[in-house]
Amino acid sequence: MADPISSPAGVPPQPLHALILDGRGGARELTGEQIMQWHPSDGVLWLHFDYTEPGTEQWLRENAGLSDLIADALLTENTRPRATQIDDGLLLTLRGVNLNPGADPEDMVSVRVWATRDRIISTRKRKLLSVTGLAEQCRNGNGPCDVADLLVSLSEGLVERMGGVVEEIEEELSALELDLLEQQHSALRQSLAALRRQTITLRRYFGPQREAYNQMQSDRLSWIPPEQRMRLREISDRLLRHIEDLDMIRERAAMAQDELVSQISDQLNQRMYILSLIAAIFLPLGFLTGLLGVNVSGIPGADYPNAFLLFSTALAILVALQIWLFRRRRWL
Questions:
Q1: What is the pLDDT of residues 47-71, one digit of tens each?
Q2: Reduced to 3 states, what is the DSSP secondary structure of residue 21?
Q3: Handedness of CA 135, 141, 142, 144 (dihedral sign)
Q4: What is the CATH code for 17-262?
Protein backbone atom coordinates (compact mmCIF):
# COMPACT_ATOMS: atom_id res chain seq x y z
CA MET A 1 0.00 0.00 0.00
CA ALA A 2 1.07 3.54 -0.69
CA ASP A 3 2.42 5.68 2.11
CA PRO A 4 0.39 8.63 3.35
CA ILE A 5 1.41 12.01 2.01
CA SER A 6 3.54 13.93 4.46
CA SER A 7 5.29 17.22 3.99
CA PRO A 8 7.61 19.11 6.28
CA ALA A 9 7.10 22.11 4.01
CA GLY A 10 3.37 22.19 4.72
CA VAL A 11 0.25 22.24 2.55
CA PRO A 12 0.59 21.72 -1.22
CA PRO A 13 -0.79 24.22 -3.76
CA GLN A 14 -4.47 23.52 -4.30
CA PRO A 15 -4.87 21.07 -7.22
CA LEU A 16 -7.37 21.54 -10.03
CA HIS A 17 -9.06 18.40 -8.73
CA ALA A 18 -8.45 16.86 -5.31
CA LEU A 19 -10.83 13.92 -4.84
CA ILE A 20 -11.16 10.83 -2.69
CA LEU A 21 -13.13 8.10 -4.45
CA ASP A 22 -15.70 6.38 -2.25
CA GLY A 23 -15.59 3.08 -4.19
CA ARG A 24 -19.22 3.45 -5.36
CA GLY A 25 -18.77 5.98 -8.18
CA GLY A 26 -18.78 9.08 -6.00
CA ALA A 27 -16.05 11.29 -4.57
CA ARG A 28 -15.55 14.14 -2.17
CA GLU A 29 -13.36 17.21 -2.47
CA LEU A 30 -10.31 17.70 -0.28
CA THR A 31 -8.65 20.87 0.90
CA GLY A 32 -4.90 21.29 1.08
CA GLU A 33 -4.91 20.45 4.78
CA GLN A 34 -6.93 17.27 4.17
CA ILE A 35 -4.57 16.21 1.39
CA MET A 36 -1.70 16.22 3.87
CA GLN A 37 -3.68 14.02 6.27
CA TRP A 38 -4.69 11.44 3.63
CA HIS A 39 -4.00 7.78 4.29
CA PRO A 40 -4.66 4.86 1.89
CA SER A 41 -7.30 3.56 4.25
CA ASP A 42 -9.33 6.72 3.54
CA GLY A 43 -9.89 5.70 -0.10
CA VAL A 44 -8.33 6.27 -3.50
CA LEU A 45 -6.82 9.75 -3.79
CA TRP A 46 -6.79 11.61 -7.12
CA LEU A 47 -4.79 14.82 -7.38
CA HIS A 48 -4.79 16.69 -10.70
CA PHE A 49 -2.40 19.65 -11.03
CA ASP A 50 -1.57 22.37 -13.50
CA TYR A 51 2.20 21.95 -13.30
CA THR A 52 2.79 25.55 -14.40
CA GLU A 53 1.15 26.90 -11.24
CA PRO A 54 3.59 28.37 -8.68
CA GLY A 55 4.69 25.90 -6.04
CA THR A 56 3.45 22.79 -7.87
CA GLU A 57 6.83 21.66 -9.17
CA GLN A 58 8.51 22.09 -5.82
CA TRP A 59 5.80 20.18 -3.98
CA LEU A 60 5.82 17.30 -6.49
CA ARG A 61 9.59 16.99 -6.28
CA GLU A 62 10.02 17.40 -2.55
CA ASN A 63 6.82 16.55 -0.71
CA ALA A 64 4.70 14.13 -2.78
CA GLY A 65 6.77 11.02 -2.07
CA LEU A 66 7.78 10.62 -5.75
CA SER A 67 11.11 9.58 -7.18
CA ASP A 68 13.03 12.01 -9.36
CA LEU A 69 12.19 9.94 -12.45
CA ILE A 70 8.45 10.09 -11.81
CA ALA A 71 8.52 13.77 -10.87
CA ASP A 72 10.42 14.59 -14.06
CA ALA A 73 7.86 12.69 -16.13
CA LEU A 74 4.96 14.55 -14.50
CA LEU A 75 6.61 17.92 -15.13
CA THR A 76 8.07 17.50 -18.60
CA GLU A 77 6.56 19.63 -21.36
CA ASN A 78 7.29 17.66 -24.53
CA THR A 79 5.68 14.24 -24.29
CA ARG A 80 4.62 11.33 -26.45
CA PRO A 81 2.04 8.74 -25.40
CA ARG A 82 3.59 5.90 -23.42
CA ALA A 83 2.97 3.51 -20.53
CA THR A 84 5.77 2.35 -18.23
CA GLN A 85 5.47 0.02 -15.25
CA ILE A 86 7.65 1.00 -12.29
CA ASP A 87 7.42 -1.55 -9.49
CA ASP A 88 3.68 -1.82 -8.83
CA GLY A 89 2.93 1.63 -10.24
CA LEU A 90 2.15 2.88 -13.73
CA LEU A 91 3.66 5.96 -15.34
CA LEU A 92 1.34 6.98 -18.12
CA THR A 93 1.36 9.77 -20.68
CA LEU A 94 -1.70 10.20 -22.89
CA ARG A 95 -2.91 12.81 -25.34
CA GLY A 96 -6.38 14.01 -26.20
CA VAL A 97 -7.72 16.14 -29.04
CA ASN A 98 -7.84 19.84 -28.23
CA LEU A 99 -11.52 20.80 -28.03
CA ASN A 100 -10.93 24.06 -26.19
CA PRO A 101 -12.63 27.08 -27.82
CA GLY A 102 -10.62 28.53 -30.69
CA ALA A 103 -8.08 25.67 -30.68
CA ASP A 104 -7.20 23.22 -33.44
CA PRO A 105 -8.17 19.62 -32.57
CA GLU A 106 -4.85 18.30 -33.91
CA ASP A 107 -2.98 20.47 -31.38
CA MET A 108 -3.32 17.62 -28.92
CA VAL A 109 -3.25 18.16 -25.16
CA SER A 110 -1.20 15.83 -22.98
CA VAL A 111 -1.97 14.49 -19.52
CA ARG A 112 0.70 12.82 -17.39
CA VAL A 113 -0.32 10.24 -14.79
CA TRP A 114 1.38 8.37 -11.99
CA ALA A 115 -0.91 5.67 -10.64
CA THR A 116 -0.55 3.17 -7.83
CA ARG A 117 -3.10 0.97 -6.12
CA ASP A 118 -4.34 3.77 -3.86
CA ARG A 119 -3.28 7.05 -5.43
CA ILE A 120 -3.28 8.91 -8.75
CA ILE A 121 -1.31 12.08 -9.39
CA SER A 122 -1.90 13.67 -12.81
CA THR A 123 -0.67 16.89 -14.35
CA ARG A 124 -1.44 19.04 -17.37
CA LYS A 125 -0.60 22.41 -18.88
CA ARG A 126 -3.73 23.04 -20.93
CA LYS A 127 -7.29 22.09 -20.12
CA LEU A 128 -8.38 18.65 -21.25
CA LEU A 129 -12.13 18.11 -21.42
CA SER A 130 -11.86 14.37 -20.82
CA VAL A 131 -10.25 14.96 -17.42
CA THR A 132 -12.72 17.71 -16.51
CA GLY A 133 -15.66 15.52 -17.50
CA LEU A 134 -14.33 12.58 -15.50
CA ALA A 135 -13.94 14.74 -12.39
CA GLU A 136 -17.52 15.97 -12.77
CA GLN A 137 -18.74 12.39 -13.04
CA CYS A 138 -17.00 11.60 -9.77
CA ARG A 139 -18.62 14.58 -8.07
CA ASN A 140 -22.04 13.58 -9.43
CA GLY A 141 -21.76 10.02 -8.11
CA ASN A 142 -21.44 8.18 -11.45
CA GLY A 143 -17.67 8.09 -11.81
CA PRO A 144 -15.07 5.31 -11.48
CA CYS A 145 -14.75 3.21 -8.35
CA ASP A 146 -11.01 2.57 -8.17
CA VAL A 147 -7.70 3.44 -9.80
CA ALA A 148 -7.97 0.95 -12.66
CA ASP A 149 -11.53 2.05 -13.38
CA LEU A 150 -10.44 5.69 -13.40
CA LEU A 151 -7.61 5.08 -15.87
CA VAL A 152 -9.85 3.07 -18.17
CA SER A 153 -12.62 5.68 -17.98
CA LEU A 154 -10.11 8.40 -18.82
CA SER A 155 -8.89 6.38 -21.80
CA GLU A 156 -12.45 5.83 -22.98
CA GLY A 157 -13.17 9.55 -22.81
CA LEU A 158 -10.04 10.40 -24.79
CA VAL A 159 -10.77 7.85 -27.53
CA GLU A 160 -14.44 8.83 -27.71
CA ARG A 161 -13.55 12.46 -28.40
CA MET A 162 -10.94 11.34 -30.92
CA GLY A 163 -13.69 9.49 -32.76
CA GLY A 164 -15.81 12.62 -32.91
CA VAL A 165 -12.95 14.61 -34.44
CA VAL A 166 -12.23 11.87 -36.99
CA GLU A 167 -15.90 11.88 -38.03
CA GLU A 168 -15.82 15.66 -38.47
CA ILE A 169 -12.72 15.38 -40.64
CA GLU A 170 -14.39 12.70 -42.76
CA GLU A 171 -17.49 14.86 -43.20
CA GLU A 172 -15.31 17.83 -44.18
CA LEU A 173 -13.50 15.69 -46.74
CA SER A 174 -16.81 14.46 -48.19
CA ALA A 175 -17.95 18.08 -48.59
CA LEU A 176 -14.68 18.97 -50.32
CA GLU A 177 -15.02 15.99 -52.66
CA LEU A 178 -18.54 17.15 -53.53
CA ASP A 179 -17.25 20.66 -54.23
CA LEU A 180 -14.59 19.14 -56.42
CA LEU A 181 -17.23 17.42 -58.55
CA GLU A 182 -19.71 20.28 -58.70
CA GLN A 183 -17.55 23.37 -59.05
CA GLN A 184 -14.03 24.67 -59.41
CA HIS A 185 -13.36 26.32 -56.08
CA SER A 186 -10.21 28.37 -55.75
CA ALA A 187 -9.73 27.40 -52.07
CA LEU A 188 -10.06 23.64 -52.59
CA ARG A 189 -6.33 23.00 -52.85
CA GLN A 190 -5.57 24.82 -49.60
CA SER A 191 -8.47 23.10 -47.81
CA LEU A 192 -7.32 19.66 -48.92
CA ALA A 193 -3.73 20.41 -47.92
CA ALA A 194 -4.87 21.61 -44.48
CA LEU A 195 -6.98 18.47 -44.02
CA ARG A 196 -4.04 16.24 -44.92
CA ARG A 197 -1.81 18.05 -42.43
CA GLN A 198 -4.49 17.60 -39.77
CA THR A 199 -4.77 13.84 -40.34
CA ILE A 200 -0.97 13.43 -40.37
CA THR A 201 -0.65 15.26 -37.04
CA LEU A 202 -3.41 13.22 -35.41
CA ARG A 203 -2.00 9.98 -36.77
CA ARG A 204 1.36 10.89 -35.27
CA TYR A 205 -0.06 10.60 -31.74
CA PHE A 206 -2.82 8.03 -32.24
CA GLY A 207 -0.33 5.26 -33.04
CA PRO A 208 1.86 5.64 -29.93
CA GLN A 209 -1.25 6.04 -27.77
CA ARG A 210 -2.54 2.68 -28.95
CA GLU A 211 0.83 1.17 -28.06
CA ALA A 212 0.46 2.69 -24.59
CA TYR A 213 -2.93 1.02 -24.15
CA ASN A 214 -1.49 -2.30 -25.32
CA GLN A 215 1.34 -1.89 -22.82
CA MET A 216 -1.18 -1.25 -20.04
CA GLN A 217 -2.84 -4.56 -20.92
CA SER A 218 0.41 -6.51 -20.86
CA ASP A 219 1.87 -4.98 -17.68
CA ARG A 220 1.38 -7.27 -14.69
CA LEU A 221 -0.02 -4.71 -12.30
CA SER A 222 -1.81 -6.33 -9.39
CA TRP A 223 -4.45 -3.58 -9.16
CA ILE A 224 -5.70 -3.86 -12.77
CA PRO A 225 -8.25 -6.72 -12.81
CA PRO A 226 -9.03 -8.83 -15.90
CA GLU A 227 -12.30 -7.00 -16.66
CA GLN A 228 -10.45 -3.69 -16.89
CA ARG A 229 -7.87 -5.26 -19.16
CA MET A 230 -10.72 -6.34 -21.42
CA ARG A 231 -11.99 -2.76 -21.50
CA LEU A 232 -8.48 -1.57 -22.38
CA ARG A 233 -8.40 -4.07 -25.22
CA GLU A 234 -11.69 -2.71 -26.54
CA ILE A 235 -10.38 0.86 -26.26
CA SER A 236 -7.24 -0.16 -28.17
CA ASP A 237 -9.38 -1.74 -30.90
CA ARG A 238 -11.52 1.41 -31.17
CA LEU A 239 -8.41 3.55 -31.44
CA LEU A 240 -7.09 1.22 -34.15
CA ARG A 241 -10.30 1.82 -36.12
CA HIS A 242 -9.77 5.57 -35.76
CA ILE A 243 -6.19 5.15 -37.01
CA GLU A 244 -7.43 3.17 -40.01
CA ASP A 245 -10.05 5.85 -40.68
CA LEU A 246 -7.35 8.52 -40.61
CA ASP A 247 -5.24 6.53 -43.05
CA MET A 248 -8.24 6.18 -45.37
CA ILE A 249 -9.04 9.90 -45.06
CA ARG A 250 -5.45 10.79 -45.88
CA GLU A 251 -5.53 8.58 -48.98
CA ARG A 252 -8.87 10.06 -50.07
CA ALA A 253 -7.52 13.57 -49.57
CA ALA A 254 -4.45 12.71 -51.65
CA MET A 255 -6.68 11.33 -54.42
CA ALA A 256 -8.85 14.45 -54.28
CA GLN A 257 -5.74 16.62 -54.54
CA ASP A 258 -4.57 14.61 -57.54
CA GLU A 259 -7.99 15.01 -59.16
CA LEU A 260 -7.89 18.75 -58.51
CA VAL A 261 -4.43 19.04 -60.05
CA SER A 262 -5.62 16.99 -63.02
CA GLN A 263 -8.62 19.27 -63.51
CA ILE A 264 -6.45 22.39 -63.32
CA SER A 265 -3.99 20.83 -65.78
CA ASP A 266 -6.82 19.94 -68.17
CA GLN A 267 -8.17 23.49 -67.99
CA LEU A 268 -4.72 24.91 -68.66
CA ASN A 269 -4.15 22.56 -71.60
CA GLN A 270 -7.55 23.43 -73.06
CA ARG A 271 -6.85 27.14 -72.83
CA MET A 272 -3.41 26.71 -74.35
CA TYR A 273 -4.98 24.67 -77.13
CA ILE A 274 -7.49 27.42 -77.93
CA LEU A 275 -4.73 30.02 -77.91
CA SER A 276 -2.68 27.84 -80.25
CA LEU A 277 -5.62 27.57 -82.67
CA ILE A 278 -6.12 31.32 -82.60
CA ALA A 279 -2.41 31.83 -83.25
CA ALA A 280 -2.55 29.32 -86.14
CA ILE A 281 -5.50 31.20 -87.69
CA PHE A 282 -3.89 34.60 -87.47
CA LEU A 283 -0.41 33.48 -88.46
CA PRO A 284 -1.01 33.56 -92.26
CA LEU A 285 -3.14 36.68 -91.89
CA GLY A 286 -0.32 38.46 -90.11
CA PHE A 287 2.14 37.27 -92.72
CA LEU A 288 0.04 38.58 -95.62
CA THR A 289 -0.78 41.92 -93.99
CA GLY A 290 2.85 42.37 -93.03
CA LEU A 291 4.01 41.51 -96.54
CA LEU A 292 1.60 43.92 -98.23
CA GLY A 293 2.20 46.61 -95.63
CA VAL A 294 5.87 47.17 -96.42
CA ASN A 295 6.60 50.71 -97.49
CA VAL A 296 8.23 49.98 -100.87
CA SER A 297 7.12 50.49 -104.44
CA GLY A 298 5.59 47.74 -106.53
CA ILE A 299 2.96 46.58 -103.97
CA PRO A 300 0.08 44.96 -105.96
CA GLY A 301 -3.12 47.03 -105.98
CA ALA A 302 -1.51 50.20 -104.68
CA ASP A 303 -3.18 52.19 -107.46
CA TYR A 304 -6.43 50.20 -107.60
CA PRO A 305 -9.40 51.72 -105.64
CA ASN A 306 -11.02 48.37 -104.66
CA ALA A 307 -7.79 46.64 -103.72
CA PHE A 308 -8.43 46.86 -99.93
CA LEU A 309 -11.94 45.35 -100.32
CA LEU A 310 -10.62 42.51 -102.41
CA PHE A 311 -7.75 41.88 -99.99
CA SER A 312 -10.11 41.83 -96.99
CA THR A 313 -12.40 39.43 -98.80
CA ALA A 314 -9.47 37.17 -99.58
CA LEU A 315 -8.44 37.20 -95.91
CA ALA A 316 -12.01 36.28 -94.84
CA ILE A 317 -12.02 33.40 -97.29
CA LEU A 318 -8.67 32.24 -95.95
CA VAL A 319 -9.99 32.27 -92.36
CA ALA A 320 -13.06 30.27 -93.45
CA LEU A 321 -10.85 27.71 -95.16
CA GLN A 322 -8.69 27.36 -92.05
CA ILE A 323 -11.71 26.84 -89.81
CA TRP A 324 -13.08 24.26 -92.25
CA LEU A 325 -9.74 22.46 -92.29
CA PHE A 326 -9.49 22.48 -88.46
CA ARG A 327 -12.98 21.07 -88.12
CA ARG A 328 -12.29 18.42 -90.75
CA ARG A 329 -9.25 17.27 -88.80
CA ARG A 330 -11.19 17.61 -85.51
CA TRP A 331 -8.81 20.20 -84.14
CA LEU A 332 -11.68 22.53 -83.39
A1: 999 999 988 999 999 888 899 999 9
A2: strand
A3: positive
A4: 3.30.460.20
137 touches 143 (CB < 8 A): yes
Measured distance CA(265)–CA(95) in Å, rounded? 41
pLDDT at 184: 56
- Measured CA to CA, the distance from residue 172 to residue 36 in angstroms comes to 50
Report the alpha-carbon distance of residue 74 to residue 51 in Å, rounded.
8
Which of 127-131, 289-293, 296-300 is most confident? Answer: 127-131
What residue ranges do the domains of the chain occupy? 17-262, 293-328
Q: Which residue has the higher pLDDT, 242 or 331?
A: 242
Distance of CA 265 to the CA centre of its chain: 30
Alpha helices (H) in the chain, listed in sequence order: 32-36, 56-62, 68-75, 129-140, 147-182, 188-218, 226-292, 307-328
The answer to whether 152 and 235 have CB atoms below 8 angstroms apart is yes
